[in-house]
Amino acid sequence: MSEKKDPIDHQRYFNDPEYRKQVLAEKKSRDENNESSSSKYGSQSDKIRNKILIWTGCVAAVFLVAVIGYVIFLFQGLPPLEKLENPDTAIATEVRSRDGAVLDKYFTENRTWVPYDEISPHVINALVATEDHRFYNHWGIDMVRTLAIPINLMRGRVEGGSTLSQQLARNLYKEIGLKFSISRKFREMITAVQIEQNYTKREIIEMYLNTVEYANSAFGIEAAARTHYNKAAKELTLSEAAVLVGSVNAVYAYNPRINPEKSTYRRNVVLYLMNNRGFIDSTSYHQLREEPITLDYQPPSKAGRVSRYFGEYVRQKVSGWAEENGYDI
Hints:
Penicillin binding protein transpeptidase fold, two-stranded antiparallel sheet, 13 helices, 2 strands, single chain, elongated
């Protein structure tokens, strides 16, 4: 409630100097009180505003430090540049005759590297259609699939968002790890972008198909083709390619030798995706999905090993020579 002011006697104000001084003095006193009150409240408002600015600045600084620390943490877990440019893959050692025939192989992972041009186009098309159909249009991360993950989860649909480059990153570099976590996913994405910057699309597909594990302990598409069909990767038919690419998703569950029914189902899913995404026509799809899976299975211990006894003799001789000369093989 505002203070009630005494009415001014205007006639007296102009005729009585003392009265006029009294009125002016009272007015001056009121003005000073109002100014003091205004200054007091203004000062409080400024203090509150300054506190808000200080706290906001502190929170922003802490957040910035946390972000920088997290980025440093992520990059510490990435593969070094030299490893990125020269990935370490376990290749089987081969014993060859003078005319180039493979007599035996030694391996911890049954793998024979083959270049892109020696892989059946059916395998490449099946892989792209199934695992990453926008592969040729992204830079390592498929933003459409990545942003769709939470929507799919809310709808109860489980669908991976990893591109071929992301899958290759976690297959090649153990630093990234396989256990699901947000940090691992970020590392995988960063490494995938680096892979895309260092390699062409053809090179990425070649590395992927030569490093991934297939059913029956076959590593790489050449070993998978030799193990399951006793033929080279470049000779694989459309149906055979679909079987092998399908097994990558779950090497035991879709093993064509152990679980032929599940493998057939998965092969048909691959064929459906190839048809749906324009890699094969509907006639081929409907025809191939009715065909049974026919294998020419060669156990990893025998696949590509036509002279195991001679190979063992060579291994012993080479091991003895290496030991005598200080080499570790």
